[in-house]
Amino acid sequence: MGRSDARGPRLYATRGHLACALGLMAALVLGGGLWPFSPESPVGLWFAVAALLTALAGAVLVLPTRRWTMPGALAVGLLGAGALLASCRTPEGLVVLAIGVMTSAQYAAYAFRTRVAALLVAEAIAAITLGMVLAPVPFHVLTWLVVVVMTVASTSLLGHVTHWLRRHATTDDLTGALTRGALLERLDARLRDARRAGSPLAVVSADVDDFKAVNDTHGHLAGDDVLVALVASWRGPAAGRALVGRVGGDEFVVVLPGRDADAAARWVAGARARCSTPWSAGIAQARPDDTVRDLLARADAALYAAKRGRPGGRGPHAVPGVPHPGH
Predict the structure, then answer these.
(1) Cβ atoms 245, 253 nearer than 8 A
(2) Which of 25, 1, 17, 135 shows the shortest CA–CA distance to 70?
(3) Residue 183 to residue 174: CA distance in whole angstroms
(4) Is the distance from CB of 274 to CB of 213 less than 8 angstroms?
(5) Quick one: residue 258, left, alpha or beta (phi over 0 = left, psi -120 to 50 = alpha)?
(6) CB atoms inside a 10 Å sphere around CB 198
């Protein structure tokens, strides 16, 4: 399988990214308090929001990693920005702050998954709307409309492009399995989750038996069809939370959270029953001190042991669209 580290692509913003963004927002808000747009600006509120954003930046770095940690911090920051909007005393201040909230929404579209990003963008639009309505300064409705339309358009475009890029960075175009980098990154996360929860996790290392013979006999397109059918069979009703990744030409890794080695063996037996393509498998159950590399190395060793013990194969391949010999 080659080098088995867990350093996959960074597909989403890290805690450090968000902490830097919140810190930059805090510095800008602090500057607004020191050099206010208007002598009547409530500088105390600006200093309070700057302190809030600074605290959020620190909290993002020190709090345990949870799904809500980063989105929650940005959501609270948006509330603070909305409060500043509502207290603004000048039209130019309204526009500058509204653009700042829009930029936060754009960050959400880039940094988070679609559902979470949509909620944060909706919060940003609500903050812009309520802040401008409650502000003690008149504004033209067209100003609000332009800011909202720009927010929706820019976040939609950014979200679409980043989703497309992430999908192509993490998904094998042929089989729909995870790419090697994406699999290693997710396996690393699942391994940490299993260790924290004290639950089992098993890994299946698999490859197609005599795959070269399929390509030589039926052609590479037929070999592609075999791989597609094999991965599809692994995604049957019994797959559950399984992760399937393609790590080589005909080499795959299946991650089975919540299953020990015996349960993984039953999964392999069921998967073989659903697919006529002969394939070999090696199973390894995670140990408390395992790294991703350790776990995959044991699964690989079990796979090669299984292949060495395979008595002459399990019969000819059934290639989709090609009649089986003797039929």
Answers:
(1) yes
(2) 17
(3) 16
(4) no
(5) left
(6) 7
Both tokens assigned to 178: 């995870």
Could you give the domains of the chain? Answer: 15-170 (no CATH), 180-308 (3.30.70.270)
Taking the C-alpha atoms of residue 22 and residue 164, their distance in angstroms, rounded to an integer, is 27
User: What is the longest distance spanned by two Cα atoms in the chain?
Assistant: 91
Tokens of 255: 């991650």
The token pair at 55 is 């605290």
218: tokens are 């039926």
Q: What is the rounded CA–CA span in Å between residue 281 and residue 2? A: 17
Residue pLDDT, tens place only, 24-58: 999 999 999 999 988 888 999 999 999 999 999 99
Q: Do residues 112 and 70 make contact, with C-beta atoms less than 8 angstroms apart? A: yes
Token pair, residue 28, equals 């800008």
Which residue carries 């599809």 as its tokens?
A: 232
AA identity, residue 18: L
**pTM (two decimals):** 0.75
Dihedral class, residue 53 (left if φ above 0, else alpha if ψ from -120 to 50, else beta):
alpha
